[in-house]
Amino acid sequence: MNNFVTDAINLKAYNLSESDKIIVMYSKDKGLIKGVAKGVKKPKSKLGARMDLLVANKLMLYKGKNLDRICQAEALNTFHKTRQNMDKIFYSMYITEVVNNFGVEDDPCSKEIYDLLYKALDKISNAIDNVEILIAVIKFQLKMMAISGFGIELDTCLCCGETVKDCNMYFSSKMGGIVCESCNETLKANALMHYKLRDFLNACLQYDFDYVSEYDEKANEKVCSVCFELLKDYINIHSSKKFKSTNILQEIK
Ligand SMILES: [Zn+2]
Question: Which of 32, 33, 133, 185 could be bridged to 127 by S-S, CB 3.0 to 4.6 A?
Answer without folding.
Answer: 133
